[in-house]
Amino acid sequence: MPLVKDLATVLGVNRNTVLRALHQLRDEGLLEIRQGRGITVAGTPQRGAVLARVRELVAFARKNGYAQDEIIAMIEAVS
Fold first, then answer.
1. What are phi and psi of 36, to 5 degrees?
2. I need a surface site. Which of 22, 28, 48, 53 has the fewest CB within 10 A?
3. Which three-class secondary structure string do you get for 9-60?
4. What is the model's pTM?
């Protein structure tokens, strides 16, 4: 992907706005940001949607007192 400063210039927005958007896309599983190596596309919108649901499931399970190994065991039992 282009540099943040170049994207900001082309879009006519502040660099921080571009950075926030890129970090949100990273959090959704669509981009991979590596220091010194740039930004690459890491997934599809479908993968991002599944990742969002996984995060919801993990948060819900932890809120209800389940540990990581218990959550993993439940997922493995379903598949």
1. 80, -10
2. 53
3. HHHCCCHHHHHHHHHHHHHCCCEEEECCCEEEECCCHHHHHHHHHHHHHHHH
4. 0.58
